[in-house]
Amino acid sequence: MKYLAIDYGTKRVGIAVSDMDGHFAFPRCTLKRETKAAFWEEFLALLEKEQPDAIVLGLPLHVDGAECTATRQVRNFAESLKRRSALPIYWINEVLTSNDAEQRLYEQGLGFAKVKEIVDQHAAAVILESFLELPEHKRERA
To answer: Rounded mean pLDDT of 61-80?
Structure first.
């Protein structure tokens, strides 16, 4: 099963995809949210190109599991996505994924500008890795 993971942000949206068997996560791209219409056009074209079987959406929560303002924004995004796609959507806690992705990129020797450019898609890959490690019975549907 192929998955497409999303690290949602109000300015940038990181995208990662799995292999066809759902074993490995790969950063794919970062979409800019300049206008709502342009974003959805680009995102839906990406879905058409990638042909995933399901979507994994990172859910931002505080370290203690409490919801925050960003949680509501992601839930609203999921509702908009459900109106535009029939693909199943899964949630996964994304706490500290951006920090993890940044650290990995800096450890590879990348500079600040390059890290900022690609961190969102790498955070999406971290989200997807976490999801793929979960047993199927623990995967939460949106």
So the answer is: 88
